[in-house]
Amino acid sequence: MLFYLGWRTRLLSAGTAATAALITAFLIGLSRIYLIEHYVSDVLNGYLVGALWLILGIAFCEWRRGTHRASPHSGRYWAAFGSVTVAGVAAVALASATASPLNATSSPVFQVRNQPAALLGASALPGRTETLAGDPRQRVNLIVTVPDAADLIDAMQTVGWTAAPRHGPLRLATAVFNDWARHAIPDPFVIPTFWNDRPDTLAFALTVANERDGTRLHARFWDSRYRADTGAVVLIGTLTREDPLEWAVTESDPVAPVGGTLDQLAADLGNTGVTVDILP
């Protein structure tokens, strides 16, 4: 709405105002997704509701332009300035007075579990992962117990897997553009999925693609926030064969079987000293 007013007061050209408004709205929505505050569906709903209010606001302004207006004078300017100042001070005071102390970051509470393999069946933890849009993705098929998360990284690299880096908005956008332009995407490239409303803690890939369909094996792990009685970290994991990008928009559940590969990964990790439990 501010960009519309800037165009009406001739501070901005029509093209500049429209472009700036779209970019601002897009970045606000992107920040909500990147900070894991909302699902994509929530952001799209916000765009829709915001567009409806914008249309109503512009319609009201255009309707008011056609009515008789008194000649402006200095008193009106000072009244407008005073109103904006009072509104700004009131907004700051109200925000400060109602600021919630719950927004402070708190350390996660860890619970002890003597039998990590039975973690999902004996607790309220979800047995499936979700996509960024909140759709069910796949069943959890691994529970890994290691002294520390860094030990899992070393073990996975020892058995031939490559640790995937964290993907920010720029890297994700670059991969989507490269895929659209028929260029190579970054390798390894593992899009995060969510378990218990949290993105994966660690991600790995076998960089050798399937010759038939170009899919790759991806392993994702989440800290369950449970610990074994020895203090070892209990991680929830999934092993998936998927296209690095297309599954995010075309699949809600992977269909490629990974049974044999899952057994092989469990055996390989077991040889490095990692405790692995395969879930049915």
UniProtKB/TrEMBL annotation:
SUPFAM superfamilies: Acid phosphatase/Vanadium-dependent haloperoxidase. Residues 124-252 form the LssY-like C-terminal domain. The chain crosses the membrane at residues 12-35, 47-65, 77-97. The keyword Kinase does not apply. Keywords: Membrane, Transmembrane, Transmembrane helix. Residues 16-61 form the Phosphatidic acid phosphatase type 2/haloperoxidase domain. Gene3D superfamilies: Phosphatidic acid phosphatase type 2/haloperoxidase. InterPro entries: LssY-like-C_dom (IPR025902), PAP2/HPO (IPR000326), PAP2/HPO_sf (IPR036938). It comes from the Bacteria. Pfam families: LssY_C, PAP2. This is LssY C-terminus. It comes from Loktanella atrilutea.
